[in-house]
Design goal:
Number of strands: 25
Number of domains: 2
Distance between the termini: 12 Å
Radius of gyration: 24 Å
Helix content: 25-40%
CATH class of the largest domain: Alpha Beta
Structural class: alpha/beta
Bound molecules: 3-acetylpyridine adenine dinucleotide
Oligomer: single chain
Length: 510
């Protein structure tokens, strides 16, 4: 448990001998908590600003929401699930998997829901972090696991007049299930990973659906499949089969990875050919195909996976609008050709504010330096996890740890393992802190940024890139390479400070 201090009264209560704070109860935070429990470390508290666990899978409930990575790979390897109903599970099934883990590991009582962390600061003398909630409560923790996620807050487009719209506005990441789309004239802005799922899901219900496309995207076949009861029973009975299925899916994605992340036109051409064949099989009208055909290099933006998105445009009630949006007016969307598209509702499939690029809240490390100052020229961390000057602070899904080609959880598991080893060392050896050496962090990031020129991502605009064109989001390489390098904690890479007896007592009792 995390030690608690009431900011108002200044009183303290000790709730554990090595308090650990986990911020975020999504896949990362819950996975970390499970591994801590497995290691016999119980002194943790999970904080989440929402009223339920699940993170992404709690928030993204739009019709058609699913994972575009196969579930046998997109799940925690240490919590295998033979019961996935299909190859690509719907969002609610993934959320139920997370809820099941919380019950199985009795984590619910360890979570402080509706608790927004608004600040954190490190005390050099005690080796403890103080984290503050929105209600003004302070908690002390010897280690903080920042598992706040990278794609959390919905981004609305900067389109003039957006506030003036008199119909219903819905963002995919905050779906309003009370609003009935049946029989409505609906516009969807955006053609990314969320749009390709929501468009085919709502198309049969609405009266008219207009998809406002700024940039057409590469889509590849999903080849989704329902898993029969017989198969699920077999997987449950012989867990090795599930492991084989996971390994097969993982290594297939690794094998195809270079086609998606490398700036290798010949490899990109293979992906483009596959996608264009898919387009041809889904859309009969050559003019419509021309409008849907992307012009940027395959992999430069996220490759989309769908068997139904392009086919939706074959429906009589679905149309594609490629004219640029001029403004939003009370009755609809006005495009640059002068047309007013009258609508009852606008769905914003316009993505997320990039949470990776900045501190999630003011974080003050050693010498009073803030994380935002350290990240003024872009978010950097050692292997995406630790930042020099911010000891005992471990980030899950941090800078340059996103994949474009495989399951993000593979990366997260490596980060959990790294943090767990560090926690064990700190706790078992009575250390004050471990702080990644600046030169180790710098060398690592020079290598990461040096590799970017061989990657496809600088060749087009996407959320992967910061405003200055640098990439602090994705890992430029194979997932296996990252896992091998990040999985183990190497003490020699960190500055290690001993806990002096008095300060230690103070930290633990605080
Ligand atoms: O968001 P996006 P997303 N006028 O940023 C368009 C993950 N994810 O929610 O391409 C008109 O990709 C914008 O146009 P353009 C995944 O990592 C995972 O779809 O910039 N259009 C684009 O088409 C993914 O990468 C799953 O020209 C405007 C769209 O909005 C990430 O989340 C499922 C506009 C935004 O696309 C984000 O995906 C869903 C404007 N002013 C998401 N502004 C899985 O299945 C923006 N757009 C795991």
């Amino acid at each position: 448990m995390t030690s608690k201090t009431s900011a108002a009264s200044g009183k303290t209560t000790a709730e554990g001998d090595f308090p650990i704070a986990i911020i975020g109860a999504g896949f990362g935070g819950i996975g970390m908590a499970i591994q801590l429990k497995k290691a016999g470390i119980e002194s943790f508290t999970i904080f989440d600003r929402a009223g339920e666990v699940g993170g992404t899978w709690r928030d993204n409930t739009y019709p058609g929401a699913a994972c575009d990575v196969p579930s046998h790979a997109y799940s925690l390897s240490f919590e295998p699930n033979p019961k996935w109903s299909r190859k690509y599970s719907p969002a609610d099934e993934i959320q139920n998997y997370i809820l099941g883990l919380v019950d199985k590991w009795k984590l619910r009582g360890r979570i402080r829901f509706n608790t927004d962390i608004v600040g954190a600061s490190f005390d050099d003398t005690t080796g403890a972090w103080t984290i503050r909630t929105g209600d003004g409560e302070d908690f002390k923790a010897r280690v903080v696991i920042s598992a706040v996620g990278g794609l959390v807050d919905p981004a609305y487009p900067d389109i003039p007049g957006i506030e003036s719209f008199e119909g219903k506005k819905i963002h995919t990441a905050r779906w309003d299930h009370d609003y009935d789309l049946r029989g409505k004239r609906v516009g969807v802005i955006g053609t990314g990973a969320s749009a390709v799922q929501v468009v085919p899901a709502i198309a049969p219900e609405v009266a008219e659906l207009e998809v406002f496309q700024r940039t057409p995207a590469w889509v590849v076949p999903k080849r989704d499949a329902v898993y029969s009861d017989r198969l699920k029973k077999l997987l449950a009975r012989f867990p090795v089969l599930l492991r084989i299925s996971r390994a097969f899916k993982y290594w297939t994605s690794e094998l195809l990875g270079p086609m998606i992340f490398l700036d290798a036109p010949r490899l990109s051409a293979v992906g483009e050919k596959l996608s264009l064949a898919h387009l041809e099989s889904q859309v009969k009208d050559p003019e419509l195909r021309r409008k849907l055909r992307p012009e940027f290099q395959f992999g430069c933006k996220r490759v989309l996976v769908s068997d139904e998105y392009w086919a939706s445009f074959e429906r009589g009630n679905v149309s594609l609008e490629c004219e640029a949006i001029d403004e939003i007016r009370p009755r609809g969307i006005h495009t640059r050709d002068g047309a007013l598209h009258e609508l009852d509702a606008i769905v914003f499939a316009t993505g997320f504010e990039l949470g990776l690029a900045r501190a999630p809240f003011p974080v003050v490390g050693r010498d009073g330096r803030s994380l935002d100052e350290s990240w003024a020229e872009g978010a950097v961390a050692y292997k995406g996890m630790t930042v020099s000057g911010f000891p005992n602070w471990f980030i899950l899904m941090g800078p340059n740890t996103g994949p474009g080609h495989t399951s993000v959880l593979v990366y997260t598991e490596a980060q959990i393992s790294h943090a767990l080893q560090a926690i064990r060392k700190l706790r078992d050896e009575g250390l004050k802190f471990v702080d990644i050496r600046q030169e180790v962090q710098d060398r690592y990031n020079e290598r990461i940024q040096g590799r970017m020129k061989y990657m496809v991502w600088p060749n087009c605009s996407s959320w992967y890139l910061s405003k200055d064109g640098s990439n602090h989001s994705l890992y430029p390489g194979f997932a296996s390479e990252y896992v091998v390098s990040a999985h183990n904690f190497h003490p020699e890479e960190y500055q290690i400070a001993e806990l002096d007896a008095d300060a230690g007592h103070e930290a633990d009792a605080a």
